[in-house]
Write a structure and sequence with these properties.
This protein is 52% helix and 21% strand. The protein contains 6 helices and 6 strands. Helix 1 (2-39) runs antiparallel to helix 2 (48-81) and helix 2 (48-81) runs parallel beside helix 6 (260-286). Strands 1-2-3-4-5-6 form a 6-stranded antiparallel β-sheet, with no helix packed on it. The protein has helices spanning 2-39, 48-81, 84-90, 99-136, 251-256, 260-286, and strands at residues 148-150, 157-164, 170-180, 183-196, 202-214, 222-234. The chain is of the alpha+beta class. It folds into 2 domains: 2-137 and 246-286, no CATH class; 158-234.
Length: 291
């Protein structure tokens, strides 16, 4: 039927334009937000593009629903304003005849929204959580570089290594300063090495050096010569997948563990195509304009 073909064709053109515009706005917002996270030290600058891509995949189902609503509203509103609807109504087309071509056009969107909600949404959230956890759990070892002072955010010491070999096993001219109970301690050694403990912790072991400890401004400081002095620079990596948030869990896991939180998340994922369907059905009467 000419009426249905014309409606589906205009919906397709309009939906493509609306989707690109909304995708541009969403990407701009995500870039600003994730760059802000990287600037504040909450995300790795190297992972910015990956986090933007994962966030985009996660929000695609909502974007498709909004695209359906806006494109249907735009097309039908224009038809009313241009008196095209008057022509179609005069030809025997009723308002109910709009439902079939609109739903035929929207059917692939419903399927995509369902698949994205059930599979892409949890996968994208899971990968984003893994990236953030990996960055938060990074140790001092990942920040060590030759000739650079390192002060861990959750540590009470400053570490300096003048030189490191390529395989990160040996170091030279190692300096460690820490504060404890009002006293300042400084340890120096010409050489050291990196060791891994049985529990997975990484240490910098200083060899044949000296440690000075005392209160600044007083002369009663203590000098200790040591054969080995170890500083923990990295913890054993934790299992990031152990405690995933509800939105990052697979749909199958939500069904197997039907708690209230899991059922709520499952309902949200299933409701995405229903939301798209409701948007389309609401847009048809809302598009009415008295020409």
């Amino acid at each position: 039927m000419i009426f249905q073909q014309a409606l589906r064709r205009e919906l397709a053109y309009t939906a493509g334009a609306v989707f690109l515009v909304m995708l541009t706005f969403m990407l701009t917002s995500l870039v600003i937000r994730i760059l802000g996270m990287a600037a504040n030290g909450k995300a790795s600058p190297n992972d910015v593009l990956m986090l933007i891509g994962l966030a985009t995949i996660g929000y695609l189902s909502i974007l498709l629903s909004a695209t359906l609503f806006i494109s249907t509203l735009i097309v039908l509103t224009r038809w009313y304003k241009d008196s095209e609807m008057v022509v179609w109504f005069s030809s025997g087309v009723s308002l109910r005849d709009l439902i079939k071509p609109v739903l035929q056009f929207a059917a692939p969107f419903f399927v995509m929204a369902l698949l994205l909600g059930l599979f892409a949404w949890p996968w994208a959230n899971q990968q984003s959580a893994l990236f953030r956890d990996r960055f938060e759990q990074r140790g001092v070892l990942s920040m060590i570089a030759s000739g650079r002072f390192i002060e861990p955010a959750n540590g009470n010491y400053v570490l300096f290594i003048e030189g490191i070999d390529a395989d990160m096993k040996h170091a030279r001219n190692v300096f460690v300063a820490n504060a404890e109970s009002g006293k300042i301690g400084v340890a120096l050694a010409h050489q050291g090495q990196f060791e891994t403990m049985p529990n997975g912790d990484r240490l910098v072991v200083m060899e044949h050096g000296r440690r000075y400890a005392g209160i600044p401004g007083q002369l009663n400081y203590r000098i200790v010569e040591f054969d080995k002095y170890a500083v923990k620079v990295d913890n054993k990596p934790q299992d990031a997948a152990a405690d995933l948030p509800t939105k990052s869990r697979d749909t199958i896991d939500l069904i197997r563990d039907p708690t209230r939180e899991n059922l709520g998340e499952l309902l949200w994922r299933i409701s995405l195509p229903i939301l798209a369907f409701n948007f389309v059905m609401i847009a048809i009467p809302l598009a009415y304009v008295n020409p």
